[in-house]
Design goal:
The protein is of the alpha+beta class and 152 residues long. It has helices at 26-42, 44-62, 90-99, 112-118, 134-151, and strands at 2-5, 10-12, 68-71, 80-85, 105-107, 123-127. The strands form 2 sheets. It has a 4-stranded antiparallel beta sheet, covered by helices on one side. The relative contact order is 0.14.
């Protein structure tokens, strides 16, 4: 970050080096390498297939919740379930689910043009990954039904 320091004066290094203070984040690089090794040991195709299965299961399961509207139903998409419940703000859904030990995201997700396109100001969103299970999706559905009872 610096070229020289004395009691009288500091001379900063030239760009880009003057913005690289301290020790590089070596642990993060090592962690990233371990994560890549782990994913490769499972296989990206196997992960994609599993996540697609979760998405299919989750889509069918969420559609059993009265008044639930899925937002974004492209045929080929990431394993993300964005939704709205009639008459209930997504933040309220998130609060009820949080009390049930279920973590989701709520809000506009930095995607306000998409929200405008679907005619909503915010959504609730469950993101699924290879470490999630069908049982967790079932718990989400139970939590959403509880949100309907409490808030609907």
């Amino acid at each position: 970050m610096i070229s020289a320091v004395t009691f009288e004066k500091t001379i900063y290094n030239r760009i880009p080096y003057k913005f690289e203070a301290g020790t590089p984040y070596i642990a993060g690089g090592i962690g990233l390498g371990a994560a890549i090794d782990y994913l490769n040991s499972i296989g990206m195709d196997a992960i994609a297939e599993y996540e697609h299965g979760l998405l299919s299961y989750g889509t069918d399961a969420l559609l059993t919740v009265p008044g639930l509207r899925l937002i974004g139903t492209a045929r080929d998409k990431a394993s993300v379930l964005s939704f709205a419940l009639d008459g209930i703000h997504p933040h309220d859904i998130g609060t009820v689910l949080d009390q049930e030990g279920i973590a989701i995201r709520t809000g506009h997700h930095c995607a306000q043009p998409v929200m405008d396109r679907f005619g909503v100001t915010a959504t609730a969103r469950a993101s699924l990954a290879f470490y999630n299970t069908r049982e967790e999706i079932d718990q989400l559905v139970v939590g959403l039904r509880k949100a309907l009872e409490v808030l609907g």
